[in-house]
Amino acid sequence: MTAYNILAISGNDIFSGGGLYADLNTYTINGLRGFVAVTCLTAVTNQGFEVFATNDQVFKNQLNSLKTVDFSGIKLGLLPNLAVATLALDFVKKNQDIPVVLDPVLVCKENHDIEVSVLRDELLKFFPYVTIITPNLTEAELLTEKSIKTLDDLKEAAKILHNLGAKTVVVKGGERLDSDQALDVFYDGEKFEVLSYPLLKENNVGAGCTFASAIASQLVLGAPVFQAVKAAKNFVYQAILHSDQYGVNQHYAED
């Protein structure tokens, strides 16, 4: 059996629900060998939920350490500042022949806003070099500079993001469009697909990270892009459905 190496360029979630923890768990469940380059640490302080970017040189050294690893895919998560984002982009440009999934994190569930104005422009530079981007509704609003209130708005946002250079887009609508359904819109420049699952409001921290890393995993395993998105959507739904308050998936833990 082929052992595939897959990289997560993502941050540390102090609560271990999202970020690199979600990525590595997802890779393992999919039978892949996961690696990680850590972009930041997080902590809850008197200032609230804070993000501490990895030192530029340390992050560069991490990526240089991995340059001889034969990766079959990459998932990009939280890039906390311009310096880290620039180094990550350089790395991606050197690996354009493999699937790359960009989760353009501009806001966190903990309501911490990452530096938006500069980082938004930097994230747009990734679009031509990645296979698919997976913004949530708020991130799609920030990237497109458009308000999203309806399913048609969600489709229009996906189209704008494609026109900005993204080859394929899935915009996660979440609960803001439908109180009972988690609606996502997929767009590849030719057709729209709406994916809908019953909305699960409990234990969903890390859902976006897991979704993106599940897509990356499926792409590495050879799935076409839309099939990878569909499989990832189901994967996240099942993971939340069977999880406890700490995000531990009881279904997979018992297998």
UniProtKB/TrEMBL annotation:
Catalytic activity from the UniProt record? pyridoxal + ATP = pyridoxal 5'-phosphate + ADP + H(+)
Q: Which Pfam families match?
A: Phos_pyr_kin
Where in the sequence is the signal peptide annotated? Answer: none
Q: What class of enzyme is it?
A: transferase
Q: Which domain of life is it from?
A: Bacteria
Keywords of the record, alphabetical order, are: ATP-binding, Kinase, Magnesium, Metal-binding, Nucleotide-binding, Transferase
InterPro entries linked to this entry: HMP/HMP-P_kinase_dom, PM/HMP-P_kinase-1, Ribokinase-like
Q: Is the keyword Membrane assigned to this protein?
A: no
Q: Ranges for the Pyridoxamine kinase/Phosphomethylpyrimidine kinase domain? A: 13-247
Q: What EC number(s) would the UniProt record show?
A: 2.7.1.35
Q: Does the keyword Secreted apply?
A: no
Q: Where does the record place a coiled coil?
A: none
**GO MF assignments:** hydroxymethylpyrimidine kinase activity; phosphomethylpyrimidine kinase activity
Family as reported in the entry's similarity comment: Belongs to the ThiD family.
Name of the molecule in the record: pyridoxal kinase
Can you name the source organism? Streptococcus dentapri
